[in-house]
Amino acid sequence: MVGKLLRVVAIPGLMLLVSVLPAPAQQDTVRVRGTIERIEGPVFVVKTRDGSDAKLTVTDNPLFVAIVPAKMSDIKPGMFVGSAGMMQEDGTQKAIEVHIFPEAMRGTGEGHYDWDLLPKSKMTNGNVEQAVTGVDGPVLSVKYKDGEKKLVVSPQTVVVTYEMGRREEIQPGTRIFVGAAKKQADGTLQTPRITYGRNGEGPAF
Question: Which helix or strand (DSSP H or E) is residue 201 part of?
């Protein structure tokens, strides 16, 4: 993947610097999922899901984005969503989680591609064309630039959305996700954006 596009966009009362990343992530970057273990000055020490420690710093003017609970009823046709899930034999994708993007984040990671949440999991980000009731639960028809997928949402599917966050909210015990951290010469990882769970919520591991 080549390059990264940064753009400043507005949500009423907020300004977000949105990183629009083609998928998958750049080869010289890594994803970080884990829980903040401690904070050492400018360094966040993260216990990753494999049990190892990662030292994470942020760039100048970083973006902190909070994940907050949402409901399936919040999703309407025309919204831009992202879903990690598992492909089924009938070609549908069983959603593990659905993320409702604010309008200012429309286009983030658009497409259908391999994901590392679980073995063989997929990520689908696109526009909701239709929401109907299916045998196994609500079904979202999601269209992206190269195609369309039907996402089956079960009672176990986690539905969340995003709000502007603050660095001060990230404390030991906070669950975080970093989509594109760059390895530094000293072994630390640096990122322009940390997505985290507010009030005990958090991104799926």
Answer: none
Helix (H) / strand (E) element for 187: namely none
Q: Is the pLDDT of residue 20 over 50?
A: no
CA separation for the pair 81, 142 (Å, rounded): 8
Alpha helices in 58-188 (DSSP H): none
Q: Note the pLDDT tens digit of each residue in 88-109.
A: 999 999 999 999 999 988 999 9
Is residue 148 located within the same domain as residue 134? Answer: yes
Q: Name the phi and psi angles at 3, rounded to 5.
A: 70, 175
Q: Is 37 exposed, middle or buried (0-12, 13-18, 19+ CB in 10 A)?
A: middle
Shared-domain flag, residues 74 and 144: yes
Instruction: Evaluate if residue 205 carries a pLDDT over 70.
Output: no
Within-domain flag for 50: yes
CA 159 from chain centre, in angstroms, equals: 12
Q: What is the pTM of this model?
A: 0.80
Same domain, 73 and 158: yes
**What's the number of domains the chain is made of?**
2
Q: Is the dihedral of CA 102, 106, 109, 111 positive or negative?
A: positive
Residue 173 lies inside a defined structural domain of this protein: yes
Domain membership of residue 72 as a residue range: 68-162
CA dist., res. 147 & res. 93, Å (int): 13
The token duo for 190 is 């640096």
